[in-house]
Automatic annotation (TrEMBL):
Keyword Oxidoreductase: yes
Cell inner membrane among keywords: no
Organism encoding this protein: Azorhizobium oxalatiphilum
Location of the 3-hydroxyisobutyrate dehydrogenase-like NAD-binding domain: 170-285
Organism domain of life: Bacteria
Signal peptide: none
Record-annotated active site: K172
Protein name from the UniProt record: Dehydrogenase
InterPro entries for the chain: 6-PGluconate_DH-like_C_sf, 6PGD_dom2, 6PGDH_NADP-bd, HIBADH-like_NADP-bd, HIBADH-related, HIBADH-related_NP60_sf, NAD(P)-bd_dom_sf
Amino acid sequence: MAETQALGWIGLGKMGLPISARLAAAGHDVFGTDREQQRISEASDAGVKPAATLEEAARHGIVFTSLPDDNALRAVALDGPLLHVMRKGSILVETSTVSPGVSAEVAQAADSAGIAYLRAPVSGNAAIAHTGNLTCFVSGHRAAFDTFLPVAQGFTRAQKYLGTAEEARYAKLAVNLMIAVSAAMMGESVVLARKGNLAWQDILDVLTNSAVGSPMVHYKAKSLETRDFSSTFSCRQMAKDLDLIVGAGHATEMAMPIASLTREIYGALVGRGEGEADFISTVKLAEWSAGLGEPDLEQTGGRLA
């Protein structure tokens, strides 16, 4: 077991709360803060020590941020006090999905402040964050990674060091692009099968037991068996990530036709009021486009026809 230590945590949302709670349960003294008092209270119930201010959370040797987007990271780390109140020689671990551009700005500011900056976006969702089965991709100072690794092993099952700059940001965007496109394909696939009179459960069985039966297909097929579209990662969040993906591609002079088309699919879902539904709601959009309503519970064994 890793030696326990005091950690600062900024951002106690869908991912930040379960991860910080897991680290607290492992024996670390985690001092957490958030803009919303309710989240601080929930984290406190889970063993995270409340930090009254960002400055209080930032005084420790390793400080994590878990923030929703570029604007939030900029507000905390560039326009806000974070890098000014962290002590020299400490480590900033940024776990969010943000653009390589804003991340590079934070890296420059952290270096000027004498702070080691690690880009450590996590892969996985809030439903499994408490289990320790997330993965993380990390880039930044190698010595800081070595210090961070024992802590990372407390909330991730795999950790990959990728380089000294923005490599981890591109890795996370690449993974999320594959997930988004896979969800779009899965939506059209199951609706094509419905148009061909396959039973709902039968096409899910075909997909999961075929060559395309990836871990994501297996995971989402379980939800689709009962048409559970409660959000593990929302359509709105996926649209945001696709904006980052397309932007990163364009910034590197790369055409992004598949990513751009997939972004339009999620834009349509948000426009139809599905912004907070799970990203596999691509199925619902494909059904609407095909002139199909929801299947009825007509088959034996609880199958949907």
